[in-house]
């Protein structure tokens, strides 16, 4: 693929329509500074989807539209089109030529087109994703951008590497998977909310269901008990009939009984003979027991030696213990003397402390605060009495003033009260008439409200039912969509892996990519692509083929040679080729096939289990025609023996039995499908996706229908609600009116009653007011006298308190000295107490150690006695075991005697045969009697069976199997009576609650399943994201190492020596790691990039760019004055590199350097014939590199 043409209309300085017709190779764009030649690079970047105005050297998107000049008006839009040659299908579309167009209007609207068909910006991004041509790709390097490849942070240098690794699309799909994961989590929360609401309804319904189940349980138990009783009766009759039948059979078999008895006697003889052989074996066992007894005696002797050794150890330990005991006794004597001394010192301190404590109590008694408190309390009491008396005097003065004013005002109130009473009585009568009218209207409105409420309840029921159904449909639809998203993401991933030949060797991948671009002929595909394998034998065939899965099938040997030559030229690894014109079939001989056909575990010949086109059948026969497939490794071993270990056999699990008998197998540990499984899994996913999409359409139709039902219910309810609210508003208005009338009436009644009470009070209270006035004046005089007395007492008490304060200060100084002395003595006493306690504790520990030593001494003595007893026992056991040998010999003699007895018994059995024959005649009479009894029992049994069918509608056999008797018939009869009483006690039961509960449980189960499915979808999305991360990491690391190798080479070429390398800042995290560039130009030390000159930095960046192009060539690359900082020599090296890469990558170079122009295949000139307007001209080069217009 290459860029054929660029069309520019109204973009920046290109006001007129301009067209650049390009060809493969190197095309140069030249022109003076400021002519607008860099706008061509901006136009290409813009049409490929660039959204950053800063990267387009502007401040807003409107800046890309021609802004006008001194002689021209601004244009209202700009448009740029790129015409790409796509004959090699580098872009994943079916067109040989692809035109990408972008248009923007000054109003801000944007339009995008692919082959003149409207599309989205997203479609353009996805079209160029992982091609190296995207908006952020390394195919367009603008002014100053070449150094940014080095000056940016290490993390920001990942972009070109990711694009070269082809993981941009994977990152896009990872973001899509994360978005779907968030949607799945939201759906999961909604389903869990619905489940919580339904589970609240389960409780009451479950109780009704349990009551109904108890009723059914009792009813079923009653029927079972009655059937079981009838079965018992039938069993008795049947037993009677069977006994009679058996009696007949017994008598009829009597003639054969003698012969049977003879055979039984012979069998018994054989049994006794076998017993004789067993006796012989017992003799051998007795011999073995003798040897065991000898060995046991030796063991007992060894045990005796160990016992003597342990006795020596016990004696040594006892001596050590006695020495420690003596030390403890001496230490105890020393401790006793120290304890006695400490006790005497402690008692002396206690006595002195007692004397000082007495003095302290006397001093404290003299300094008590009780007198101060007594005087203070007395002052407080007098003060409180003074305040209370003063308050009482003020109250009395106010009361006297109020009584005087009231006497003056009562005279004018009596006339006004009489007029107000007449007015309030009239208002009460008017309110009563209005209340009666309002109550009649409210009664009529209440009936209308009830009718509207009934209609709303009916609508709510219909709405809830439809809403629940719709929620269920929506939940299932979301689940289906989540599954579609998950499966689609998985399908796309597998498709990308197949199209990118991921998992194949580098050589295979290179050949297939070149073939897809029509650069190689005769390539049919890899073996993995050309065969179709059932899933059950997929592992077996994949194991049998092994590395041959990556073999490339070609038409002829010449095609294979051409591909191998290409790999050598590109140094792109190795590959194995299978030319159809020379490959011969290999297959087991018919005789070998017949030997294994029909053998256990034989599945088939591997080539017969694989499907492929007829053209490739000999390839499959060549690879798998002599491989046998077995179901298990055990059967594979058996088949290998049949084929004399000359044939390779594989199993379902991938175990292998190779010719010669070599076996290999174990656990296959892989996360994703193998090369064979990709295509099959894609087909399975497509079928599942088709089913899910059909289900999605059904659910959409169901949801729409339910939504219509919900809408209708909402409309009906809204109308009913409107009527209800209208009536409710009217009722509220009437209630307000009624309350107003009742309030008016109540207020008038209260006011009238108050008037009557006040009038009565006025009439009867005049004398009381005068009497109260006289009493208040008298109380005021008494209170004033009391205030004077209290003031005198308060002055005397304050003087007594001042005298007490002087005496108290002298006593407090004496008390402080005694307290310090007592505290010091107490500390000394406590120290002595601690030392005494420590000494006593040490004495107790020594006594415990001595007691413990005594206990150990007794234990050692007991152990010694026990060991001596064990020695004696072991010696006695040896003697006992020797005696046992003679006992075993005696048993052998007894067995020989038993054999003689068995021989005599056999002879006795022979005589018994003849006796059995004499008893044949006695059976005839008994046979006739048994036949009569059988007929009578048969009649009774038939009657009972008929009752079983008529009463319970079942056969005896069916009842017998399902209603076994678990107790006695008498207890069963009592159980029947109890069950009948239990049914009566339950009363009325809602049996429908069982089915209703079942429906609710099924709905909960359905939603639970949906929740589980959403959880499963969430887990699958997590797995998908993990797979994408793994794939991106692998691709990134592989590409990084390739670029790293090529960078070192390119650097050395461009610099004429030196060394450079790339390093990962975080090697353990390939998905986020930054990339450091280390450079050492010739003759310089390894140094930081910032210390390099501008030319060295530019040349280093170019080396990195050429390394990326070597690893991942792009169809075309735009370079905008990237060599501006280089000297002439380095420009020449740069131009040579362009020429070297021009075979695979088309270069459009914007330049003003002579060396670059010399290597260009064609040149375009950009001029500015009028100020602010650029124009394109085709130019040709003369020998002295002067420009001439073409």
TrEMBL record:
Gene3D superfamilies: 1.20.1060.20, 3.30.70.1620, P-loop containing nucleotide triphosphate hydrolases (3.40.50.300). Contains large globular domains required for ATP hydrolysis at each terminus and a third globular domain forming a flexible hinge near the middle of the molecule. These domains are separated by coiled-coil structures. Belongs to the SMC family. One of its GO terms (molecular function) is ATP hydrolysis activity. It is found in: Cytoplasm. Residues 167-296, 325-469, 675-758, 794-863, 892-926, 1007-1034 form a coiled coil. The keyword Transferase does not apply. It holds the Pfam family SMC_hinge. Required for chromosome condensation and partitioning. One of its GO terms (biological process) is sister chromatid cohesion. SUPFAM superfamilies: P-loop containing nucleoside triphosphate hydrolases, Smc hinge domain. One of its GO terms (cellular component) is chromosome. ATP binds at residues 32-39. Keywords: ATP-binding, Coiled coil, Cytoplasm, DNA-binding, Nucleotide-binding. This is Chromosome partition protein Smc. Homodimer.
């Amino acid at each position: 693929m290459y860029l054929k043409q660029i069309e520019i209309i109204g973009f920046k300085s290109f006001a007129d329509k301009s067209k650049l017709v390009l060809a493969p190779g190197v095309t140069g764009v030249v022109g003076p500074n400021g002519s607008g030649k860099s706008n061509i690079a901006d136009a290409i970047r813009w049409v490929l989807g660039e959204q950053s105005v800063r990267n387009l050297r502007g401040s807003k998107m409107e800046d890309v539209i021609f802004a006008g000049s001194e002689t021209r008006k601004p244009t209202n839009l700009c448009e740029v089109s790129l015409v790409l040659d796509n004959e090699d299908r580098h872009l994943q579309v079916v067109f040989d030529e692809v035109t990408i167009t972008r248009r923007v209007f000054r109003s801000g609207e944007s339009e995008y087109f692919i082959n003149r068909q409207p599309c989205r910006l997203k479609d353009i991004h996805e079209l160029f994703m992982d091609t190296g041509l995207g908006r952020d790709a390394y195919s367009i390097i603008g002014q100053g951008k070449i150094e940014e490849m080095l000056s940016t942070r290490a993390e920001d240098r990942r972009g070109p590497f990711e694009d070269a690794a082809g993981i941009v699309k994977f990152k896009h799909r990872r973001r899509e998977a994360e978005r779907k994961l968030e949607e799945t989590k939201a759906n999961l929360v909604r389903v869990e909310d619905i489940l919580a609401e339904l589970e609240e309804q389960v409780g009451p319904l479950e109780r009704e269901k349990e009551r109904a189940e108890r009723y059914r349980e009792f009813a079923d138990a009653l029927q079972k008990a009655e059937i079981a009783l009838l079965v018992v009766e039938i069993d008795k009759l049947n037993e009677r009939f069977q006994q009679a039948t058996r009696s007949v059979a017994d008598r009829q078999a009597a003639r054969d009984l003698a012969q049977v008895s003879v055979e039984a006697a012979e069998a018994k003889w054989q049994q006794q003979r076998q017993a004789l052989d067993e006796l012989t074996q017992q003799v051998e066992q007795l011999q073995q027991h003798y040897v065991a007894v000898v060995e046991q005696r030796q063991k007992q002797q060894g045990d005796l030696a160990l016992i003597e050794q342990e006795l020596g150890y016990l004696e040594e330990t006892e001596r050590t213990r006695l020495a420690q005991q003596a030390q403890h006794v001496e230490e105890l004597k020393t401790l006793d003397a120290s304890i006695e001394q400490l006790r005497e010192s402690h008692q002396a301190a206690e006595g002195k402390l007692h004397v000082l404590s007495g003095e302290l109590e006397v001093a404290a008694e003299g300094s008590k605060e009780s007198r101060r408190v007594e005087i203070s309390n007395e002052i407080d009491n007098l003060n409180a009495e003074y305040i209370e008396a003063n308050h009482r005097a003020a109250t009395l003065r106010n009361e006297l003033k109020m009584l005087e004013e009231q006497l003056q005002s009562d005279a004018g109130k009596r006339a006004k009260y009489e007029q107000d009473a007449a007015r309030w009585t009239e208002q009460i009568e008017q309110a009563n008439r209005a209340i009666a009218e309002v109550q009649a209207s409210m009664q009529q409105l209440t009936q209308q409200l009830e009718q509207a409420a009934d209609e709303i309840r009916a609508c709510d029921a219909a709405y809830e039912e439809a809403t629940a159904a719709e929620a269920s449909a929506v939940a299932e639809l979301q689940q289906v969509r989540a599954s579609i998203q998950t499966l689609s993401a998985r399908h796309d991933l597998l498709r990308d892996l197949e199209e990118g030949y991921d998992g194949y060797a580098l050589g295979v991948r290179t050949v297939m990519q070149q073939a897809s671009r029509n650069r190689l002929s005769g390539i049919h595909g890899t073996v993995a692509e050309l065969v179709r394998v059932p899933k059950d034998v997929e592992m077996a065939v994949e194991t049998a083929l092994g590395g041959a899965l990556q073999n490339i099938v070609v038409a002829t040997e010449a095609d294979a040679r051409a591909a191998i030559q290409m790999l050598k030229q590109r140094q792109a690894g190795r590959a194995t080729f299978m030319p159809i014109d020379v490959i011969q079939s290999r297959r087991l001989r018919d005789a070998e096939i017949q030997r294994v056909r029909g053998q256990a575990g034989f599945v088939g010949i591997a080539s017969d289990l694989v499907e492929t086109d007829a053209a490739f059948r000999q390839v499959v026969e060549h690879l798998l025609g002599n491989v046998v497939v077995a179901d298990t490794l055990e059967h594979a071993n058996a088949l290998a023996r049949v084929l004399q270990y000359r044939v390779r056999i594989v199993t379902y699990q991938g175990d292998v039995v190779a010719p010669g008998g070599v076996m290999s197998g174990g656990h296959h540990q892989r996360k994703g499908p193998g090369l064979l499984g990709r295509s099959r899994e894609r087909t399975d996913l497509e079928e599942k996706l088709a089913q899910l999409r059909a289900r999605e359409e059904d659910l959409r139709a169901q949801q729409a229908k339910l939504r219509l039902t919900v809408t209708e219910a909402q409309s009906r309810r809204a109308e009913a609600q409107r009527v209800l609210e209208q009536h409710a508003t009217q009722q509220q208005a009437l209630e307000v009116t009624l309350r107003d009338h009742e309030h008016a009436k109540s207020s008038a009644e209260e006011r009238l009653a108050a008037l009557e009470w006040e009038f009565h009070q006025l009439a009867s209270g005049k004398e009381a007011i005068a009497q109260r006035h006289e009493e208040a004046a008298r109380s005021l005089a008494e209170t004033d006298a009391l205030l004077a007395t209290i003031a005198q007492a308060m002055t005397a008490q304050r003087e007594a308190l001042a005298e007490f304060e002087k005496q108290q200060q002298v006593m407090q100084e004496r008390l402080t000295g005694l307290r310090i002395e007592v505290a010091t003595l107490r500390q000394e006493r406590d120290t002595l107490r601690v030392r005494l306690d420590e000494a006593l504790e040490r004495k107790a520990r020594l006594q415990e150690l001595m007691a413990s030593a005594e206990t150990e001494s007794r234990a050692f003595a007991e152990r010694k006695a026990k060991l001596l007893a064990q020695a004696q026992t072991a010696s006695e056991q040896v003697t006992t075991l020797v005696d046992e040998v003679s006992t075993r010999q005696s048993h052998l003699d007894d067995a020989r005697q038993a054999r003689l007895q068995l021989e005599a018994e056999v002879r006795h059995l022979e005589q018994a045969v003849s006796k059995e024959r004499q008893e044949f005649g006695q059976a005839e009479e008994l046979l006739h009697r048994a036949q009569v009894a059988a007929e009578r029992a048969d009649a009774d049994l038939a009657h009972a069976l008929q009752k079983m069918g008529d009463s319970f509608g079942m056969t005896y056999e069916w009842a017998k199997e399902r209603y076994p008797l678990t107790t006695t018939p008498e207890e069963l009869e009592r159980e029947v009576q109890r069950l009948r009483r239990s049914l009566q006690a339950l009363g009325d039961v809602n049996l429908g609650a069982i089915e209703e509960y079942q429906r609710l449980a099924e709905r909960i189960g359905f939603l639970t399943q949906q929740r589980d499915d959403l959880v499963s979808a969430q887990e699958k999305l997590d797995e998908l994201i993990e797979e994408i991360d793994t794939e991106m990491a692998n691709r990134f690391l592989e590409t990084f190492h390739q670029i790293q190798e090529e960078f070192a080479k390119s650097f050395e070429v461009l610099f004429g020596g030196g060394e450079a390398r790339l390093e990962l800042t975080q090697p353990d995290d390939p998905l986020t790691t930054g990339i450091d560039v280390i450079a050492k130009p010739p003759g310089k030390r390894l140094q930081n990039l910032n210390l390099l000159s501008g030319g060295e930095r530019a040349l280093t960046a170019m080396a990195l760019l050429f390394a990326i192009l070597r690893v991942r060539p792009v169809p075309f690359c735009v370079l905008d004055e990237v060599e501006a900082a280089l000297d002439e020599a380095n420009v020449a090296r740069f131009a040579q590199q362009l020429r070297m890469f021009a075979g695979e990558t088309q270069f459009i170079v914007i330049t003003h350097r002579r060396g670059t122009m010399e290597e260009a295949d064609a040149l375009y000139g950009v001029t500015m014939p009028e100020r602010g307007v650029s124009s394109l001209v085709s130019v040709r080069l003369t020998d002295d590199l002067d420009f001439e217009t073409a």
